[in-house]
């Protein structure tokens, strides 16, 4: 059985890194030299998608798709979510207004979130502690969305594994909570 999980979030939140961290294959990436204000944050950016896989035992495999973070590539978001099982939303706590990013991406992916599930990973909390996880939960309540929120380091396999396990547990009605 094969599943498809989507990674989304703003530029620099760690989507490409997270997929590289957890993938069992070399990640297929569409990184291109950043040419706009993104170049102030990083040298390259995803322009179409990232792709990796994760074998989870038996005949089960998870396909990992990372979306571009820039709104100008948002046409890819609808394409990539087709057939997706769930969403991992990564947010960079060091950005100017990560709670606005949370709201923007929830609105952008709302149709997909409604028919699937979502987990949220907040990166770079070690560089900027505020807003804290409580603020993310408060914003989610304001938006009428339920999702677990974790502090993560996209370079740490265990952190990404926890996100995926939480998402899969939410998707499997047979899992006891």
Automatic annotation (TrEMBL):
Transmembrane segments: none annotated. GO terms for molecular function: GTP binding; hydrolase activity. Pfam families: ATP_bind_1 (PF03029). Keywords: GTP-binding, Hydrolase, Nucleotide-binding. PANTHER family: ATP/GTP-BINDING PROTEIN-RELATED, GLIDING MOTILITY PROTEIN MGLA. Belongs to the GPN-loop GTPase family. This is GTP-binding protein. It comes from Halospina denitrificans.
């Amino acid at each position: 059985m094969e599943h498809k999980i989507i990674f989304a979030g703003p530029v620099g939140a760690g989507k490409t890194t997270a997929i590289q961290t957890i993938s069992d294959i070399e990640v297929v990436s569409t990184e291109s030299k950043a040419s706009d204000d993104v170049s102030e944050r990083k040298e390259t950016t995803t322009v179409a998608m990232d792709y990796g896989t994760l074998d989870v035992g038996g005949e089960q495999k998870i396909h990992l798709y990372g979306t571009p973070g820039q709104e100008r590539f948002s046409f890819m978001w609808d394409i990539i979510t087709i057939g997706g099982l769930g969403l991992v939303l990564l947010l960079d706590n060091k950005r100017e207004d990560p709670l606005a990013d949370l709201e923007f991406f929830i609105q952008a992916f709302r149709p997909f979130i409604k028919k699937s599930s979502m987990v949220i990973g907040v990166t770079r909390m070690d560089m900027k502690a505020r807003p804290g996880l409580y603020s993310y939960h408060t914003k989610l309540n304001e938006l009428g969305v339920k999702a677990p929120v974790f502090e993560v380091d996209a370079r740490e396999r265990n952190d990404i594994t926890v996100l995926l396990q939480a998402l899969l547990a939410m998707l499997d009605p047979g899992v006891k909570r």
